[in-house]
Specification:
Blueprint (H helix, E strand, L loop, with lengths): L1 H19 L1 E6 L2 E5 L8 E12 L8 E7 L6 E3 L2 E6 L2 E8 L22 E3 L7 E11 L9 E7 L4 E7 L12 E2 L5 E7 L3 E6 L13 E11 L4 E6 L11 E5 L2 E8 L18 E4 L4 E10 L16 E4 L1
Parallel strand pairs: 2-13
Antiparallel strand pairs: 1-3, 3-9, 4-8, 4-11, 5-6, 6-7, 7-9, 10-13, 11-12, 14-15, 15-20, 16-19, 16-21, 17-18, 18-20
Length: 318
């Protein structure tokens, strides 16, 4: 009779022991810092989820924690792309549960198949336990058309459902079962600064026996700047520091005079800030913008035969 009474008391107490368990959560912010969208490379960052559980009486059953994360305030356009926002502009990113960044961290409550990683805790005899999970974030490359700005997505309220339960009902996080904890708030943020890249194509005037007429040739400066970024392109005076129409190609002490221009008619010299009105201005779109450089060798006294060269420095100011 005594044994039967003890069993009955223990069984009756199990539900109250489960209710005594309480878990709280914190998540650090995920800051991608300055993201270079023109490089084509991905940017990565991490955040840390901390969970602490306690109970007033011993509860030795394992605790399953399911940290569901929906889209965040920036929204999501697909299973692969959550978004941060800067006004009306958006920057794609994603949160993953693995360091290889192959498993998206999701929620039972959103439209996509991905679910959160389960975290199993083993309470002490006093009912206490704790654990951590790492959130892995990536901003993919290939977003050169995103304008400069500070981008943000906030996770709070309905975007965060951190639930916990004893492990009697299975070890997956496919549903919204379990006790709902107070939602922590954390942010995902990144900054895109104005940036420009430049590539060049050389000018080759070819071979000429006697410099008794104009010799024309073209090259190219290709400018890629973040959208809405105003820029100017300057060409310096070359190795000898000439003016836009009086640069010098050299072979030893001998020189060949040439000029660089903004137009096909060779009437608009292309120089630097030292020659007012001689630079080329533009506004970035995120795509490469080719600018033709028109070169001319005017008639002049012909020096000795050989290869004459000069180096012109291209400067992008933005």
């Amino acid at each position: 009779m005594l044994r039967a009474a003890i069993v009955a008391i223990l069984v009756a107490m199990l539900p109250s022991l489960a209710l005594a368990q309480s878990c709280s959560f914190t998540v650090t912010n995920m800051n991608f810092g300055a993201v270079d969208t023109l490089s084509g490379s991905a940017a990565t960052s991490t955040a840390t989820l901390n969970v602490t559980c306690s109970g007033s009486l011993p509860l030795l059953l394992p605790i399953l924690v399911c940290p569901h994360l929906a889209a965040g305030t920036g929204g999501a356009t697909s299973a692969a792309a959550r978004q941060m926002l800067s006004g009306a502009n958006s920057l794609d990113y994603q949160i993953y549960s693995d360091p290889a960044m192959s498993v998206v961290w999701g929620s039972y409550a959103w439209a996509y198949a991905s679910r959160p990683p389960p975290l199993m805790l083993s309470p002490s005899v006093l009912g206490n336990s704790s654990g951590t999970l790492t959130l892995y974030g990536r901003v993919p490359g290939g977003q050169a058309t995103v304008p400069p700005g500070t981008y943000l997505s906030t996770f709070s309220g309905g975007h965060v459902e951190f639930r916990y339960r004893t492990n009697l009902l299975g070890s997956n996080c496919d549903t919204g079962s379990g006790t709902l904890a107070a939602s922590p708030t954390f942010t995902i943020n990144a900054t895109i600064a104005a940036n420009c890249l430049v590539t060049t194509q050389n000018i080759d005037f070819g071979s000429k026996g006697v410099l008794d007429a104009n010799v024309d040739a073209t090259g190219q400066v290709s400018v890629t700047c973040t959208p809405s970024t105003a820029y100017t392109v300057s060409l310096n005076g070359g190795t000898t520091g000439g003016t836009p129409t009086n640069r010098k190609m050299s072979k030893g002490a001998e020189r060949v005079t040439y000029g660089l221009y903004k137009d096909n008619a060779r009437t608009q010299p292309w120089g630097d800030a030292g020659t007012p009105g001689s630079t080329v201005a533009g506004t970035g779109t995120g795509a490469a913008q080719p600018l033709t450089v028109y070169g001319r060798v005017p008639p002049q006294t012909t020096p000795s035969a050989g290869v004459y060269t000069d180096t012109v420095v291209v400067t992008i100011t933005y």
